[in-house]
Amino acid sequence: MNERISVVGDLVAAHAADAIDLRRRIHAEPELGWTEHATTAAVAAHLRGAGLDPVVRPDGIGLVADVGNGPPLVAFRADLDALPIDEAPRHPYASRVPGVMHACGHDAHTATAAGIAVVLHRLGRLAGAVRFVFQPAEELIRGGGAVMAQEGALGSAASILAFHVDPAIPAGTIGLRTGAITGASDRVRITLGGPGGHTSRPHHTVDLVHVAARLVVDLPNHLRRITDPRNPIAIVFGSVHGGAAENVIPTTVELGGTVRLFDLDLWRALPAEVERTVHDIAGPYGATAKVEYEQGAPPVVNDPDLVDAVRSAAEMVLGAEAVLDTEQSLGSEDFSWFLEHVPGALVRLGAGLPDRRVDLHSADFDIDEDAIPTGMLLGAAALLEMLDRAGG
User: How many Å separate Cα 239 from the centre of its chain?
Assistant: First the structure.
């Protein structure tokens, strides 16, 4: 293994600049979810240039590429899409597309994955095969992870790995966590109905604003009461609309919010529980209620054996001091759809800037590009470790 890792290090050094260039080209021409035709074509061309034979999905959005010959087969996932945000330009490769930018690091994930694929292809001598899955529309519901998993993009893969850049930790480090690392993120829309009336006579009608207020308070409280207190749940309403005049009780009030949690079993049961509870709260007041519950991605639950494999590889190539424990996030990741089929692990890849702190999904988001060769080195080493363990 040590001899292979030495060669991997040399290959990363030889190909890191190409991966960074790919990231900058993708960054300059970002595409929103389910429109990533040019991004897909750029990745495919990069891989073909290295001698690989990627397979593009029939609609031209998303692709897979295999390195080596299996079994065993393990997989690595990257995402292609950008966000509807105007970039605060700082670099010559800033977004040229108004209102669209790579504000979540997907360009770095894609470039890193392509770089790993090239390194492993040049290395050869794999104890199996690695499938690289480049998915579209990670930011959307229903996203590309769900679609490609359903299409069978994983093939016979025994496990899967993914990176997500983390601007809170420096390049050259990684964050690991066993168990739930990101939360589910669902959307709920509630439409209340009643006859309306005059605010001087609320007892003659159904006061929908009062009912909406009860839902905003009582629905989260109920869900927290039926949840193991060690497994947090957050339901927060971001929009409440109803009425146009101070002295008129409206006939309709609409509420919209998100539900976030880490417990996979509760996530599966939640739509029915929310529906029942909304009617239990609104019904006694005489209000009608229509509930639209849209499940996003499940929580990402990291497999302990794969986390151990990544940790072992990281300590070998980065040093034990570079491996950090990371916190849970209630942000969602549709990498989780692949984990409905095989065990996997999501790794936080340090990308923090040395001179300022930025956050994901912000107009001034940026990364330290040293994260890309770090990711290439760690990714190649971790996938080799996964293949060795899968082969027994």
Answer: 24
